[in-house]
TrEMBL record:
CDD domains for this protein: ACS (cd05966)
Xref: Pfam families: ACAS_N (PF16177), AMP-binding (PF00501), AMP-binding_C (PF13193)
Endpoints of the signal sequence: none
N6-acetyllysine modifications at: K608
Known role: Catalyzes the conversion of acetate into acetyl-CoA (AcCoA), an essential intermediate at the junction of anabolic and catabolic pathways. AcsA undergoes a two-step reaction. In the first half reaction, AcsA combines acetate with ATP to form acetyl-adenylate (AcAMP) intermediate. In the second half reaction, it can then transfer the acetyl group from AcAMP to the sulfhydryl group of CoA, forming the product AcCoA.
Name the record gives this protein: Acetyl-coenzyme A synthetase
GO terms, molecular function: acetate-CoA ligase activity
Native species: Actinokineospora xionganensis
Record-annotated Acetyl-coenzyme A synthetase N-terminal domain positions: 33-83
Residues bound to ATP: G388, E389, P390, D412, T413, W414, W415, Q416, T417, D501, R516, R527
InterPro entries: Ac_CoA_lig (IPR011904), ACAS_N (IPR032387), AMP-bd_C (IPR025110), AMP-bd_C_sf (IPR045851), AMP-binding_CS (IPR020845), AMP-dep_synth/lig_dom (IPR000873), ANL_N_sf (IPR042099)
Amino acid sequence: MTTDSLSNLMDERRTFAPDSGFAAAANVDAGWYTAADADREGFWAAQARRLSWESEWSSVLDWSDAPVAKWFVGGRLNVAYNCVDRHVEAGLGDRVAIHWEGESGDGRTITYADLLREVSKTANALVSLGLRAGDRVAIQLPMIPEAIYAMLACARLGLVHSVVFGGFSPTALRSRVDDAQARLLITSDGQFRRGNAAPMKANTDEAIAGCASIEHVLVVRRTGSTVEWTEGRDVWWHDLVDGQSDTHTPEAFDAEHPLFILYTSGTTGNPKGILHTSGGYLTQVAYTHHAVFDLKPETDVYWCTADIGWVTGHSYIVYGPLANGATQVVYEGTPDSPHQGRHFEIIQKYGVSIYYTAPTLIRTFMKWGDEIPAGYDLSSLRLLGSVGEPINPEAWMWYREHLGGQRCPIVDTWWQTETGAIMISPLPGVTSTKPGSAQRPLPGVGARVVDDAGVEVGPGGGGYLVLDKPWPSMLRGIWGDEERFRSTYWSRFDGFYFAGDGAKYDADGDIWLLGRVDDVMNVSGHRISTTEVESALVSHPSVAEAAVVGATDATTGQGIVAFVILRGGQDAEVASQLRDHVAKEIGPIAKPRQVLVVPELPKTRSGKIMRRLLRDIAENRAVGDTTTLADSSVMALISSGLNPAE
Ligand code: WTA
């Protein structure tokens, strides 16, 4: 974040007290904070009882092997049973679980009874492929119901899913499949994007060519496009799943049985496989979904606009809402297809009452114009949520006015792939909200802002966000790399989890998140590491050296700006090819906004690239302090020779 936007943020003084009617009916009250403070483990045990356990735990938390936690020790449950079967057993089989809206307007209404049949059939199909509890299953699918069936079928059988966002390149998919040694890949023939069918299986075929661990590829027919077929390996979903029995008896697993791996960018080139387990994860996603979104399952229609390829889709489309018996909208397409009112049209059509999205989309709506939401009936909305990046006060105010009709509370939810569930957020009906602040750790959660030495800063002070107490949905490690788990999160401050985010307290002690303090960029709410993009760039034959920074961007939060030194004989024309090259290597989300060809990069005497100076150039600012540069004339050389190639 630039110094400018930071001082704007710190000047923000507006507050919005909860509406008394909302507060009177809210799921939580201020007493929850006191209860959790008085008896934290007792509080979490009470939250765990939202779920149905085959056998209860003997102790709530075992932290003796810190930083690897065990929650609900000895407890046994089946995650899919909790998300599906128990609602049907409670007589709610006819309740709509999912209003699925295809991009082109095709749709399916899926009740909890339907969901139970589909998940059971899918589970039987996976058993028939020889998969056994503990095996890994990679999933790369568009936002179609089969993606949810597949995840829940894995959970039901104790298989560990690794969902890979549909926009990731074959190279990115391959490294994830290899790292997890997945036995099965579930994908589709293609996916719809803005009315066009784009291939999917062609990419996954490329990704897994020669991958020894993959035995089968299960393919959903979505677009009907022609695909290549490998006999003996590839199986159509409709051939295998449709004919299966629609009943399946779930087996309970240990609370610490692995549930999923989800890869996320870190400060080095290799994505980290974040590991989550069953009992604690489901407890915290169910609790936070109930408390933060004030879900009333009988009447609310909930919509989270994330993709299931990200953690928000895992926790707040699949596991949290379904554990709570919610009725939700799942939308396959983009917000501007076939027109820019698409989200508002969907809110109106289904009477969406809770809407959860990312600041980047809110800023995009602002850009498209106030008259678009004004053209729809949005009066069903009663709560709005934000996630993925700091929300600037102006976007927050616009959200409140143009979607929330000045009446809906806004919950700005801070959390990460690693935390599994929401950690810091206002509580609707309890907290007086402030535009741009996530405010307080939830009841049961411990967070503070500390200085370099790990000492908590006072009111008005800034520093690093840390989590000072274990929480049920915390990551249990990085798949296959315990050392990296310890060094990334637990070595910076003794006894605290280091989140990688900068933060500040205001005079009331509320927390304001200020963006990443490491080499991770946040582009449209997606985490991308500078190193990952740099290694993609240097893998191109024309590039000798590359440095990448995240520059402030009015819509996407940050935009990727790459500085490259070309090998001899190359001309600056190559810059535009380099953008495509990165998209091909990682995925379109990692495509640099700009590629600048430079003769030199600013380095310290020890050879470390000074990104701070490059960020100054990328954000059109006067270049800051250059005294630690090995060669202080380099910045002048870079600035004078800039080729603003796009
Ligand atoms: C950022 C997404 C400010 C933060 C759930 C974090 C936020 C990273 C917020 C995690 C928020 C997420 N305010 N920043 N409300 N929510 N972030 O793993 O930098 O994709 O570390 O998880 O997003 O991104 P991830």
